[in-house]
Task: inverse folding
């Protein structure tokens, strides 16, 4: 019984799970689950599941945003270096919904399983006074389901490139603030003629609180330099 208990405790210590709740004015509200399982002190299996409840920023040919839920599931590896100040996570995921596979988005929110694949790379650095990092993900459609390109018998599809980077100063172990830049664009879009485009280019600032009990709060806001107007994002995270 003692051996069984010790084994269970060791496995529990190797496993980490975080719940993220995020809302912004493009992707809407999206809860995420992120987890790792240590294979060695500096190598872990990593996974992520996210549900984008209503992506308002992607519209159909008529310009109507419709209702665009999307589920994303990723798996890969996470590596640490520089005495765990640096973390690199590489994953490949699958997307389920209609944003990639639909030439004409359905207002009823119809979805397609395994509509696309998503390779991604995330880098994070947390030092005693400085922090920074970034993410790049490429959303590649592999199915075509709803709506055809005008004059064609094939369905329209989209591929997206999404990336962001940030850098900031840690005033204390709890409070940090800095600059955030983010861009989303289509690298290919056959939904309708002239559809390939940038969706946003955000530049702004962020403030973050790393609270006790492994709780995080972050607010990011600034200017959209592509369409004008403002952007904002609020995130809450809890690690168990």
Result:
């Amino acid at each position: 019984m003692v051996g069984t208990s010790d084994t269970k405790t060791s496995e529990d210590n190797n496993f980490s799970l975080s719940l993220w709740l995020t809302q912004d004015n493009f992707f809407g509200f999206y809860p995420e689950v992120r987890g790792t399982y240590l294979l060695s002190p500096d190598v872990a299996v990593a996974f992520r599941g996210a549900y984008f409840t209503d992506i308002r920023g992607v519209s159909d040919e008529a310009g109507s945003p419709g209702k665009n839920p999307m589920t994303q599931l990723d798996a890969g590896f996470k590596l640490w270096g520089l005495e765990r100040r640096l973390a690199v996570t590489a994953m490949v995921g699958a997307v389920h919904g209609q944003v990639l596979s639909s030439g004409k988005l359905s207002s009823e929110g119809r979805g397609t399983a395994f509509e696309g694949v998503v390779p991604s790379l995330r880098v994070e650095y947390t030092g005693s006074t400085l922090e920074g990092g970034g993410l790049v993900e490429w959303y590649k459609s592999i199915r075509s389901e709803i709506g055809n390109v005008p004059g064609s018998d094939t369905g329209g599809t989209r591929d997206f490139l999404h990336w962001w980077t940030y850098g900031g100063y840690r005033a204390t172990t709890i409070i940090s603030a800095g600059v955030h830049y983010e861009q989303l664009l289509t690298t290919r879009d056959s939904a309708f003629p002239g559809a390939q485009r940038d969706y946003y280019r955000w530049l702004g600032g962020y403030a973050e609180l790393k609270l006790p009990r492994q709780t995080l709060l972050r607010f990011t806001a600034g200017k959209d330099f592509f369409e004008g107007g403002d952007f904002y994002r609020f995130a809450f995270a809890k690690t168990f």
Remarks:
- The chain has one helix and twelve strands.
- The helical segments are 2-14.
- The longest strand covers residues 112-126.
